[in-house]
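quick one: histidyl-adenosine monophosphate bound model?
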Amino acid sequence: MSQKISGVKGMNDLLPGELGGDMAPVETWQFIERAAREVFSRFGYGEIRTPMVEDTALFVRSVGEETDIVGKEMYTFEDKGGRSLSLRPEGTAPAVRAYIEHSVLNQEPLTRWYYVGPMFRYERMKTGRYRQFFQIGAEALGSKEAAQDVELMDMVVQLLEQVGLKDVSLNLNSLGDDACRPAYHQKLVDYLKSHREQLCEDCQRRLETNPMRVLDCKNEKCQAIVKAAPNILEFLCEPCKAHFADVRRKLDVLGIRYVVNPQIVRGLDYYTRTTFEFIAAHPALGTASTVGGGGRYDKLLKALGGPDVPAVGFALGLDRLTLLLKEGGQKYSAPPDLFVAVADEGSADAAFALASKLRHEGLKVEFDTRGGSLKSQMKRADKTKARFTLVLGQAERESGKGQLKPMAGGEPIAVSLSEVAQAVRAAGQGTAGQG
Ligand code: HAM
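yep, here:
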């Protein structure tokens, strides 16, 4: 017997209906994606689709060599031409690369993009943390103003509202800039060094490579030390302080609730000033409770050889959002409007043609292509949860009339075979043909 081949660890199959196992059904994913496209387009954001693979140097120079993402988690390989390529671990660097490559600044001074797609990180897996995962992200390039930061946060808030997710809290911070961060950095390193022995092994290493990451370590012992660490917000220079105050004021103007959390340092090196995370403390996510994060990266474009353009963005973890909705138990797939069944062999082609015609007319129609007895077809009709069935046999073909049977019970409706779609629509609650 041939050996079975399994999928790659940490990379999930997304299946429709009830088949999905631990993952949410694909309809839940589609529901969120549809909502994101709708909400983001209301804000004037256009979609970009960049390749899944980029030059490795792009991520090394943007996300940062010392980050876990680049240092430990990238899927990097050499192609047949000897180039070092990486599966994208995130979407900001590719968006910026595309912006620079297509000289977008020359064409529009304010650019707003969004993207939906898979990202890859070789992470330690658990619920809500995978090696292929999906992000819905947005980037706004060309505005340094606080209004731009807040517009993005508003967009997330409106999306969460649209898909019905509550209890997600916005955590806000500022990381300062080149003028004020170095002094803070030094203070933090001094403090952490004086507690080096109490830090976890990872943080002892981080202390040398990326000390700010100690601030968001989940280890309890590290958290206790971090509690008394110097606070970045007390070190902000005047312009950064003013920007942060402006962000807070504009959040208030929109009535968006948030908490200031100086530990939101993020796992990528490109941030300056505003950083934020959306956190859902829900058991379905375990410790993978951050459903999205983002911030400003005013220096990144220049660092990648582009123009000096300020920018800000975020990305939401689609896997995590779907897990939250799955937990809510709601179904996002509409049942078929109609099941067309064949009563006798001689009616098979007519029934097949009728199903096709009704689909042309916009109905969602099930038809059992395996044929089989009427009984087995009706069993399948039950399983599909179709709203109506229509059995087509010789009598119906001869009279041109049939009966729409409501599957939930109730009186059958007599219909002319040429007006089935109208009858289904008239009998429905306005849902027919829209699912
Ligand atoms: P990030 O915080 O690395 O930011 O990722 C954003 C979100 O992606 C996380 O909050 C989480 O929900 C989800 N995520 C990350 N890793 C995984 C994983 N292994 N499994 C499942 N979900 C995951 C960024 O990627 C930045 N590019 C965001 C950004 C855009 N900043 C500015 N613009």
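The longest strand covers residues 111-120.
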